Amino acid sequence: MTSFSIERHRFTEAEVARLAGSRVEYSNWPVVYLLNDERSIYVGETLNAAKRLRRHRDPKSRNRDMKHVRIVLGEEFNKSACLDLESQLIRYFSGDGQRTVQNRNDGVTDADYFDRRRYQQSFDDIFDALRAEGLFAKTRHEIENSDLFKLSPFKALTVEQRAAVENILDGLFDDLESQRSSMSVIQGAAGTGKTIVAIYLIKLLSDIATADEIDAFESESVFSDYFQRGYPQLAEGLRIGFVIPQQSLRTSVREVFKRTPGLSKQMVLSQFDVGKSDQQYDLLIVDESHRLTRRANQSSGGLNRDYRLINEKLFGRDDDAYTQLDWIRAKSTHQIFLMDSGQSVRPADISLDTQRALRSEARGAGRWHHLMTQMRVKAGTDYVGWVRNALAGGTSGPIDLGEYDFRFFDSPVEMREAIAERESEAGLSRMLAGYGYEWRSRADPEAYDLEIDDFRMRWNSKTTDWINSPLSANEVGSIHTVQGYDLNYAGVIIGPELFWDPVEQRIRVDRDRYFDKKGKENNPKLGVVNGEAELTVLIVNIYVVLMTRGMLGTYVYVHDEGLREQLRGVFGAAIT
Does the keyword Hydrolase apply (predicted)? Predict the structure, then answer.
């Protein structure tokens, strides 16, 4: 542990001028400093605090009206430690939500350095000291469990993610300068950070567009060049939209954008918002693009009407061949599609052939970017494939899950009790299930939906932001409430719609026990028949998504006894 002190000053011309001669550390020592008023905060690091603070007092600086400055000093601080502390404070202030973070996001790092673990204890103490002064409203644990933190644009990207962002920027600016249209694809399995890359990129483009000469960027930033040499002029005024098909996640991201300088909640759109809009977008980034739909029976008559009207508006006629993917391309000059075919969960989702064609087009143009490193689940990159292989065939090779808490239960009651314990310890621990149970409580709030012997629970009572709702710890979430979200622990019930056929020696689907009507209906408009093979793929996708929500652990109960015994040899043999 290293010692530190926090020096407090008023952020005035006279006080800043006085600092230069008051302590040698203010002009020749690595420090982290904070500027704040009641609504905003800025975090910086520098080797010359006096000089940097004078620059912040410049009339052109966006931070010149801040009221207070704090300087964090440490006898053993070095450049790497200060960059690390700066990045952590930016992330936590963003997740806390009490004040608007005025930083740009290109300087947030997560680099390792000598003796980093020892510095971490001091950083914890610095956080506590700042919280005691009222700069943080929440504890670190509360912040880490919040959507503001998990979906924040102030993330330290991995090398793989940074490369994707840098390549996308290079291509986009080249296209903007040449006035060419473009389309890019970011492909990655669940947990590889596709949504984070999209949010980071939108914030970065906003920062580039408003770059000034006062708030200089440190040379450590891999994106420094984009804030000069004409890039800000190319980015200025770009009309950017972030399309999110899932209603629940869209609501959460809107809240993040509302609190982030340079972004607005109006930038977060549904695909219907895009189609109805009179605005033409320069860039549309589409999250979970595999959840865009083709022409199918929508969930309401109003949406069926809207589908027809949008087709007529954009293409002059209503043709069943048009998909929501076509809407996006018609309404924008540049598109970035984030995709994972393994997360398509309904037959109305755009077809695999359409997804393959999109990837092929992006590859041909050199605009295909593949994220492979698993970021969510602490069990490593192989975990997702291991789960998919087990659910697709009932067999899978051995896997070392390290410290990941994976458990296989014979009783849903015992699993619910274990999840309740994790909820009391870590929070964000929820019960989840596939659609093997009727939603009786929708019509009768007193009815139970999931009944297995003496186990009884109800489906999620709300569809937006269910994870953070007060009742969620006592309910069971469906795929549509959790896709795109992180949990600490997930208790997954594999329902009776999947069963083990002892004659054919394989996992099969009981169509009558699958209660998502939209998840199994045929599409006569397009001549699509959703048979057992097609339904099996979609249901396996659902359970792969559910079983990749828990960052720290996944607990599993299998309803069908035959399938439970078959999967026991796979899931029960996991090394934990």
Answer: yes
End-to-end Cα, the chain, rounded Å: 31
**Which residues form the domain of 547?**
382-571
Q: Specify the pLDDT at position 37.
A: 96
- Shared domain for 420 and 486, answered yes or no, is yes
Q: Structurally, how many domains does the chain consist of? A: 3
Low-confidence winner among 249-253, 465-469, 519-523, 536-540 (lowest mean pLDDT): 519-523
Q: Which of 112, 144, 176 is the last residue of a domain?
A: 144
What integer pLDDT is reported at residue 212 of this predicted model? 73
Note whether 417 and 361 are same-domain residues: no
322-326, 395-399, 438-442: the lowest-pLDDT one: 395-399
> What pLDDT does 217 receive?
47
Q: Which amino acid is at 199?
A: I
- Distance, in Å, from the CA atom of 99 to the CA atom of 261, rounded to the nearest integer, reads 11
Which CATH number characterizes residue 170's domain? 3.40.50
- In-domain check, residue 411: yes
In a domain, 187, yes or no: yes
Is residue 306 within 8 Å of 272, Cβ to Cβ? yes
Domain edge (last residue) among 320, 339, 371: 371
- Tens of pLDDT, residues 449-494: 999 999 999 999 988 889 999 999 999 999 989 988 999 999 999 9
pLDDT band (50, 70, 90) for residue 218: very low
Query: How large a percentage of the chain has pLDDT more than 90?
Result: 73
**CA–CA gap between residue 549 and residue 110 (Å, rounded):** 23
Q: How far apart are CA 160 and CA 96, in angstroms?
A: 27
Residue 3, Cβ density class (10 Å: 0-12 exposed, 13-18 middle, ≥19 buried): exposed
Extract the tokens encoding 51.
């000089």
**3-state SS track over 388-457:** HHHHHHCCCCCCECCCCEEEEECCHHHHHHHHHHHHHHHCCEEEEECCCCCCHHHCCCCCCCEEECCEEE
Q: Which residue has the tokens 């399938």?
A: 563
Q: How far is CA 39 from CA 9, 258, 259, 342, 531, in A?
A: 18, 14, 11, 42, 56
C-alpha closest to that of 512 among 497, 534, 502: 497
How many C-beta atoms lie closer than 10 Å to residue 321's C-beta?
11
Does residue 113 contact residue 84 with C-beta atoms inside 8 Å?
yes
376 domain-assigned: no
Are residue 344 and residue 392 in the same domain, yes or no? no
**Whole-model pTM above 0.70?**
yes
Residue 455, beta-bridge partner list = 452
